[in-house]
Amino acid sequence: MIELSEAAARRVRAIAERQGKVPALRLSVEGGGCAGFQYRFALAEDRAADDHVSETDGVALLIDPVSLPLIEGAVVDYVENLGGASFQVRNPNAASSCGCGTSFSV
Question: Which of 8, 32, 41, 62 is the most buried (most CB within 10 A)?
């Protein structure tokens, strides 16, 4: 199971409303980044039949079956601090991550 925090759900909803889109966030994992794998976020245009779907406050989090094993049990959050604002993934499967938090290794 993967969880979308309430703060992340609010942010996705705000972005989707501003763009006139459905409040759904797609999270995928791709090879690359400074640690080996990197997270990719995008508003979801559509749902695939094999997507894993998690919902928080009516906002869907969609994950493809290839990415799912790498982030199973993760929490997707939206954090605002002095350094800026961003979606962050707390991934229990990551053995290490880069300083910016957008890439990881297993």
Answer: 8
What region does 68 belong to: left with phi over 0, alpha with psi -120 to 50, or beta?
A: alpha
Residue ranges of domains in the chain, CATH in brackets: 3-105 (2.60.300.12)
Mean pLDDT by runs of 10 across the 106 residues of the chain is 95 96 95 79 93 96 96 94 88 72 62
Residue 32 has a pLDDT of 74
**Nearest CA to 25 among 2, 50, 49, 4?**
4
- Per 3-state DSSP, the chain is made up of helix, strand and coil in percentages (nearest 5) of 15, 45, 40
Strand (E) or helix (H) holding 30: strand 24-32
Q: Which residue has the tokens 């910016």?
A: 100
- pTM score above 0.90: no
CA pair distance 89, 93, nearest whole angstrom: 11
